[in-house]
């Protein structure tokens, strides 16, 4: 299969990214330019944002780990916002399981659960609204917890026409829910089928996955004529919540997000200090 290189950066790609950041800092003088009266202030801000994001021609994607709302860490949102800004991201991908649906689990639910099904869903929607406010446009990979209610509807042979869409239920009209997303030669999956390292080799394709809360890594596999990476993204779950009691005596989760920079060429895992 060739050789394995852990956490290997392409320094040409890193150099390009650093030059981007340097140019961005120099362009702070743009803020001194008076906006023209024939544009409204909001139109002017929109043009500035567009130039910032697309002027260099690079896509920088922020990958947000499993949330399992309403059971995510409060500080995780601000951490992801800070990384979006730090790495000049132009796009956001949620890697799946934005909602936990503990009340609807196929396994035994916690008998001491703090919320009823109705309360849990309402609280999850309230907490997801914070993410929607921060990232009003995003691609959301559908995870196994996201689709729990849909699966139970299928088990009961309920026609799909009776079922509301994810964006309707969670009140996130501008989020795009998909099973798989491909951008710049990188596939983004939730990851029920295995690890990122096995999936990238099986598909011979750069792969980013979530699902495995206790793993966060990036490995590059190098052959004679190819190189692919598999990146396992951390998560933002609250390990102490009753919904995570099933993993109480296992490994603690890897809290973090990731970025894929320079049009899919530079993947970096970012762990949050606890």
Keywords:
274 residues; alpha/beta; 6-stranded mixed sheet
Order of strands in the sheet with the most strands? 1-9-10-8-7-6
Strand-pairing-aware structural class: alpha/beta
Low-confidence stretches: none
* Measured distance between first and last alpha carbons: 37 Å
Please tally the helical runs, counting DSSP H or I stretches of 4 or more residues: 7
Using only C-alpha atoms, the radius of gyration works out to 20 Å
**CATH C-level class of the domain at 59-190 and 234-271:** Alpha Beta
Q: In CATH terms, what is the architecture of the domain at 59-190 and 234-271?
A: 4-Layer Sandwich
CATH topology of the domain at 59-190 and 234-271: Purple Acid Phosphatase, chain A, domain 2
| Largest sheet properties | 6 strands, mixed
Inertia-based shape: globular
Percent of residues in helices comes to 25-40%
> What is the average per-residue confidence, as pLDDT, rounded to a whole number?
82
Order of helices and strands: EHHEHEHEHHEEEHEEEEE
Number of strands: 12
Write the SSE topology.
Layout: E1 3-6, H1 11-26, H2 41-54, E2 61-64, H3 76-86, E3 91-94, H4 117-134, E4 138-141, H5 148-155, H6 166-170, E5 175-178, E6 181-183, E7 186-189, H7 196-203, E8 206-209, E9 217-222, E10 227-232, E11 256-261, E12 266-271
Parallel strand pairs: 2-3, 3-4, 4-5, 7-8, 8-10
Antiparallel strand pairs: 1-9, 2-11, 6-7, 9-10, 11-12
Structure characterization notes:
The chain has a domain of about 170 residues: Purple Acid Phosphatase, chain A, domain 2. It is globular and about 50 Å long. The protein is of the alpha/beta class.
């Amino acid at each position: 299969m060739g050789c394995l290189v852990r956490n290997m950066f392409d320094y040409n790609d890193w150099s390009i990214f650093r030059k981007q950041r340097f140019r961005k800092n120099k362009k702070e003088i743009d803020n001194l330019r008076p906006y023209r009266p024939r544009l409204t202030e909001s139109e002017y801000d929109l043009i500035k944002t567009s130039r910032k994001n697309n002027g260099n021609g690079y896509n920088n994607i922020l990958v947000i780990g499993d949330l399992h709302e309403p059971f995510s860490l409060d500080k995780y949102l601000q951490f992801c916002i800070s990384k979006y800004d730090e790495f000049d991201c132009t796009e956001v991908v949620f890697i799946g399981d934005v909602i936990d649906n503990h009340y609807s689990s196929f396994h035994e639910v916690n008998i001491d659960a703090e919320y009823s099904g109705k309360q849990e869903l309402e609280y999850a929607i309230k907490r997801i609204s914070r993410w929607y406010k921060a990232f009003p446009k995003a691609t959301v990979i559908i995870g196994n917890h996201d689709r729990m209610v849909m699966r139970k509807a299928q088990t009961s042979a309920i026609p799909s026409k009776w079922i509301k869409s994810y964006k309707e239920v969670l009140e996130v009209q501008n989020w795009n829910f998909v099973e798989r997303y491909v951008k710049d030669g990188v596939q983004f999956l939730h990851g029920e089928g295995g690890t990122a390292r096995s999936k990238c080799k099986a598909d011979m394709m750069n792969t980013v996955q979530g699902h495995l809360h206790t793993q966060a890594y990036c490995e590059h596999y190098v052959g004679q004529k190819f190189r692919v990476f598999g990146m396992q993204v951390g998560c933002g779950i609250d390990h102490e919540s009753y919904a995570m009691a099933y993993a109480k005596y296992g490994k603690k989760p890897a809290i973090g997000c990731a970025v894929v920079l320079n049009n899919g060429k530079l993947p970096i895992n970012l762990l949050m200090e606890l």
